[in-house]
């Protein structure tokens, strides 16, 4: 059951509401990202979690200027939610706030592997990108679909698990690269 208070909390602090759903770093599956959407009134809060492998193609600590440049480009791309998750023009959505960044993972198997380059590169360490967005939409009911340009921007991404909470309840979807459109007609 979703009540009004929960929705308000979602808009104020989306990461609190979804904390119980959050996967621990290192537990993610490469190719799979997660997008949480909370809609109340004209405000839409989105929270994205994506493996470093999907976004920049590596999860080790940036070691070269090229690595660091990839991270910078990725953060810039992730800071433009409407270019990743394309909403119908009729909804009249604008970005109120946007933040994106890399969350460093920790070694899971103890200090023994801390200096083992091979282990680091082969998966002892996982990093994720996290982003949070707040949109304002003149007419959210006009959102009958979301086009996941996300897959064009990030060629390694394969699937996004979507959780949407609105005044009509909570729904879950999977959007895949092969069919990158989430049909929401009648759902908002
Ligand atoms: Zn990983």
Automatic annotation (TrEMBL):
Start-end of Basic and acidic residues biased regions: 104-123
Signal peptide range: 1-19
Record key words, sorted: Signal
Pfam families: ZrgA
Transit peptide recorded as keyword: no
InterPro entries named in the record: ZrgA-like
Location of the region described as Disordered in the Swiss-Prot/TrEMBL record: 103-123
Protein name: Zinc-binding protein
Species of origin: Jannaschia pohangensis
């Amino acid at each position: 059951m979703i009540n009004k208070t929960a929705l308000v909390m979602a808009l104020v602090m989306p990461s609190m509401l979804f904390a119980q759903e959050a996967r621990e770093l290192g537990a993610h599956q490469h190719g799979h990202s997660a997008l949480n959407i909370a809609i109340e009134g004209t405000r839409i809060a989105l929270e994205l979690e994506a493996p470093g492998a999907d976004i920049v193609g590596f999860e080790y600590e940036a070691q070269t200027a090229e690595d660091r440049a990839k991270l910078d480009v990725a953060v810039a791309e992730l800071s433009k939610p409407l270019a990743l998750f394309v909403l119908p023009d009729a909804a009249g959505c604008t970005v109120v706030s946007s933040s994106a960044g890399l969350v460093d993972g920790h070694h899971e198997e103890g200090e023994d592997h801390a200096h083992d380059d091979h282990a680091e590169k082969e998966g002892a360490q996982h990093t994720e990108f996290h982003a949070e967005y707040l949109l304002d939409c003149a007419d959210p009911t006009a959102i009958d679909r979301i086009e996941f340009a996300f897959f064009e921007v990030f060629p390694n991404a394969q699937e996004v698990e979507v959780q949407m909470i609105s005044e009509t309840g909570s729904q879950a979807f999977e959007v895949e690269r092969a069919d990158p459109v989430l049909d929401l007609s009648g759902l908002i």
